[in-house]
Amino acid sequence: AEYMGARTFYQMSGRCVRCVKPASPLCGKCKMVYYCSAECQKADWGLGHKEKCKELREKAEKERNANEGSPPPITPSRENAGNQMAAPQVWLYSFDDLLAAAKYRVKLPKCGLINRANSCFANSSLQCLHLCGPWRGLLQLPHPCTEGVCMLCEAKDFHNALTDANVPFLPPLMDRLQRAGDIFGQGDQEDAQEFLRYLLSSFHQQYLTGHGNVNGYRVQETTPIWQIFGGYLQNQLRCLNCQNISNSFEGFMDLRRVHG
User: Fold this and answer.
1) CA angle centred on 6, ends 94 and 132, rounded to 5°
2) 225 contacts 207 by C-beta, under 8 angstroms
3) Rounded to whole angstroms, how far apart are CA atoms 83 and 52?
4) Which sign does the torsion angle of CA 235, 240, 241, 242 carry?
5) DSSP type of residue 238
6) What is the DSSP letter of 49?
7) Which residues pair with 238 in a beta bridge?
């Protein structure tokens, strides 16, 4: 289960489980894992696939046998009858560019941030983002700007200011939110996770706006924000009578604690 969980995204997107480059060949035995070359397949074999290959092959055979002779199910937009989601037909932003951006080295700040009223929820989220290398590297690349307050420009300016600061300061972003009458700029105590989700959603929407009208949720989920912070939860149901297996995939922008 751990071996599968760490590779679910790459299986769904048709990328090599070792180097995440685009790949089409599958493991010849289990037909479940992608590799871009014989070298990557050989390396992954020694790192765990050797023990899991037979298990994955048997699981796939059981699912095929259970589905033989039965009519194809009506599949919702986020559900797949097999083990994989279809890869996006179009990638809005290159995954290879994000891999290069992920190498960005973050410098630890010399100081923290000043709390104004109850802004600690925002400061904690902003400082977490400040230490996220792939996010910081992404901001070094060109991005679509919006009229008025450009959230991506504000974020880049904030990170640069925090890197160079020698004394604590009040994040300018909070002043922008206050002047705009935003709920998070009113000085009330808010939830840090909700604020982080608000920021990620704003960044994500700005990248989508830069591409105009984007149809299809799988294509929308190829923005840099989704590729860095997003993912999928896989739910699997097995019928106790016919043993038929149904898999559904639910996208998330931030991983919350799952009860049940």
Assistant:
1) 55
2) yes
3) 15
4) positive
5) E
6) I
7) 245
Backbone angles phi, psi at 160, to 5 degrees: -65, -40
Predicted local confidence at residue 182, as pLDDT: 57
Nearest to 229 by CA among 260, 259, 249, 201: 201
Which tokens belong to 19? 């180097």
Query: What's the sign of the alpha-carbon dihedral 160, 163, 164, 165?
Result: positive
How is residue 67 written in tokens? 């589905």
pLDDT of 207 strictly over 70: yes
Q: Is 60 exceeded by the pLDDT of residue 100?
A: yes
What is the distance, to the nearest Å, from the Cα of residue 37 to the centroid of all Cα atoms in its chain? 25
Cβ pair 158, 126 in contact under 8 A = yes
Residue with tokens 């901001």: 139
The model carries a pTM of: 0.63
Helix (H, G, I), strand (E, B) or coil at 237: strand
3-state DSSP assignment of residue 165: coil
Tell how strand 245-252 and strand 79-80 pair up: antiparallel
**Are 187 and 116 a contacting pair, CB within 8 Å?**
yes
Tokens 């912070």 belong to which residue? Answer: 229
Question: 122 Cβ partners below 8 Å, 6+ apart?
Answer: 171, 173, 174, 184, 190, 192, 195
Q: Which tokens go with 174?
A: 């909070």
